[in-house]
C-alpha cells in the first residue's frame, strides 16, 4: 500500500487535466500490476477520455510538451528582422535557463500548459530590474502564440504585473561644435559622418546604406530608401514609415564636400574596399578613439540620432513632423525624448498668444 500511495504514474499528454486526475490512481494500480496492464490502462483512458484531436495534432501536442520546444516553434515562425529575432531569442533564454542563465529556475522542461501565475511571478522577481520588463514581454508573446496554436487555454503571464521601467535620459552631444571636434579626429573618409548623421537623424543602419544618389543637395533633402542589418541590405517598402525624405541642413550638406571622390562604389560612406562599412569595427577603430581624442565623454554612434532629435526639439520642430523625419511614432518620440521638452508648455502658450493676438488685430483693422 505504501508503494501505491507514493506512486507518481506518467499521464498521457492528450488527457484533459480533470480526466488525468481521475485516471491517475488507476494508472498507479496498473503500473504495479505489471505485465501489459500499463499500456492497456492508458489506451483505455485515451479511448474514453482523450481529447478529440486528429492524429497530426495529437503528435504535435506530445512534441510540444515542454516550453523549450514551444519557444523554438514560436521563433521559427516569427516574422522579423534577423537582429530582432536574435534579441528575442536572447531574452527567451531567461525563460528556459532561469533568471541567472544557470539552468535554475527556468521553465525549460515544464509543460507550456502547466505554467502558473505564481511560478511566472516568482521567476520575474529574480530577473534584473532593467531587463525584467522586456524579458517578461517576450515570454508573454510566446504564451500568446501557445493560446492561438491551442497548446494552452490561457496566458498566465498576462496576469503577472509587468511595469515598464522609467526610461533613462538618452545620451546626446550638446552642440554642433562637439560634432565638429569628433570629425577632426576621424579619417578624412569618415569625417563628415558626425555632422551628417547628427543633423539628419538617420539610424546607423540607414546612413551605412546610403548611396550618393540618395542625397539631393539642390532640394536640400535625403531620401532614406534602404537599411543594412547583419550584412544584408533591405529596401524599405512603400507602406513603411521608414521609407521617407528628411531635411538636409546646409551645414550637413557642406560637410559632404570633404568626402574623397570614389568611382568604385555608389555608397556615400563606404569601407576601404568600397563595400559596406562594418559598424562594429568602425566603432572600435575610428569612432571610439575620435570621441576620446575630442575630449568628450564616450557615447555610441547612435547618440548622433538622439542629438538630431534634441536639436530639432530645441528648434521647435513639431513632434508629429519629427516622428515622420525619424521614421518612428509620435508616442515613441514622446517616450524617448519627453525629458527634452521642459519648455513645451511655455512655447505653446507663446505661439497661441501670438496667433490670437494677430487674429484680434485683424478684426480691429477690418472694423475700422
The largest pleated sheet is described as: 3 strands, antiparallel
CATH architectural group of the largest domain: Orthogonal Bundle
Biggest sheet: strands side by side, in what order? 1-2-5
N-to-C span: 108 Å
Notes on the structure:
The protein is mainly α and 368 residues long. The chain folds into 3 domains: 2-52, no CATH class; 67-159, Orthogonal Bundle (DNA polymerase, domain 1), CATH 1.10.150.130; 176-344, hpI Integrase, Chain A. It is 52% helix and 5% strand. The protein has helices spanning 2-5, 17-33, 37-49, 55-63, 67-77, 82-97, 117-125, 132-148, 176-185, 193-200, 204-207, 250-255, 279-293, 303-314, 319-326, 330-337, 344-367; strands spanning 215-216, 221-224, 226-229, 232-235, 244-247. The strands form 2 sheets. The protein has a 3-stranded antiparallel β-sheet with strand order 1-2-5. It has a two-stranded antiparallel sheet with strand order 3-4. Helix 9 runs antiparallel to helix 10 and helix 15 packs across helix 16. The longest helix has 24 residues, at 344-367. Residues 52-65 and 363-368 have low confidence and may be disordered.
Question: How is the secondary structure organized here?
Answer:
Layout: H1 2-5, H2 17-33, H3 37-49, H4 55-63, H5 67-77, H6 82-97, H7 117-125, H8 132-148, H9 176-185, H10 193-200, H11 204-207, E1 215-216, E2 221-224, E3 226-229, E4 232-235, E5 244-247, H12 250-255, H13 279-293, H14 303-314, H15 319-326, H16 330-337, H17 344-367
Antiparallel strand pairs: 1-2, 2-5, 3-4
Key features of this structure:
single chain, mainly alpha, about 50% helix, DNA polymerase, domain 1, three-stranded antiparallel sheet, two-stranded antiparallel sheet, 5 strands, about 375 residues, disordered C terminus, hpI Integrase, Chain A
Amino acid at each position: 500500500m505504501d508503494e501505491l500511495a507514493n506512486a507518481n504514474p506518467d499521464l498521457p499528454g492528450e488527457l484533459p487535466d480533470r480526466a488525468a486526475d481521475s485516471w491517475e490512481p488507476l494508472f498507479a494500480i496498473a503500473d504495479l500490476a505489471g505485465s501489459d496492464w500499463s499500456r492497456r490502462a492508458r489506451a483505455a483512458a485515451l479511448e474514453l477520455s482523450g481529447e478529440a484531436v486528429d492524429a497530426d495534432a495529437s503528435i504535435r501536442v506530445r512534441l510540444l510538451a515542454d516550453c523549450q520546444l514551444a519557444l523554438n516553434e514560436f521563433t521559427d515562425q516569427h516574422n522579423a528582422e534577423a537582429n530582432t529575432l536574435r534579441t528575442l531569442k536572447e531574452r527567451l533564454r531567461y525563460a528556459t535557463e532561469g533568471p541567472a542563465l544557470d539552468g535554475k529556475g527556468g521553465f525549460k522542461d515544464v509543460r507550456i500548459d502547466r505554467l502558473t501565475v505564481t511560478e511566472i511571478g516568482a521567476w520575474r522577481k529574480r530577473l534584473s530590474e532593467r531587463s525584467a520588463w522586456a524579458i517578461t514581454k517576450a515570454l508573454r508573446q510566446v504564451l500568446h502564440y501557445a493560446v492561438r496554436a491551442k497548446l494552452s487555454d490561457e496566458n498566465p503571464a498576462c496576469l503577472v504585473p509587468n511595469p515598464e521601467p522609467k526610461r533613462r535620459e538618452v545620451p546626446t552631444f550638446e552642440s554642433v561644435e562637439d560634432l565638429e571636434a569628433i570629425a577632426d579626429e576621424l579619417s578624412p573618409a569618415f569625417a563628415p559622418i558626425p555632422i551628417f548623421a547628427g543633423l539628419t537623424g538617420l539610424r546607423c543602419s540607414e546612413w551605412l546604406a546610403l548611396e550618393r544618389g540618395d542625397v539631393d543637395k539642390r532640394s536640400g533633402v535625403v531620401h532614406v530608401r534602404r537599411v543594412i542589418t547583419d550584412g544584408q541590405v533591405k529596401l524599405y517598402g512603400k507602406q513603411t514609415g521608414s521609407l521617407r525624405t528628411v531635411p538636409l541642413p546646409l551645414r550637413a550638406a557642406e560637410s559632404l564636400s570633404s568626402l574623397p571622390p570614389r568611382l568604385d562604389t555608389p555608397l556615400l560612406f563606404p569601407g576601404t574596399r568600397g563595400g559596406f562599412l562594418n559598424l562594429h569595427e568602425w566603432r572600435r577603430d575610428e569612432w571610439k578613439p575620435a570621441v576620446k581624442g575630442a575630449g568628450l565623454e564616450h557615447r555610441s554612434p547612435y547618440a548622433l540620432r538622439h542629438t538630431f532629435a534634441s536639436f530639432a526639439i530645441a528648434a521647435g520642430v513639431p513632434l508629429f513632423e519629427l516622428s515622420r523625419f525619424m521614421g518612428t511614432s509620435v508616442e515613441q518620440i514622446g517616450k524617448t525624448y519627453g525629458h527634452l521638452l521642459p519648455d513645451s508648455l511655455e512655447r505653446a502658450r507663446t505661439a497661441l498668444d501670438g496667433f490670437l493676438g494677430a487674429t484680434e488685430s485683424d478684426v480691429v483693422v477690418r472694423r475700422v
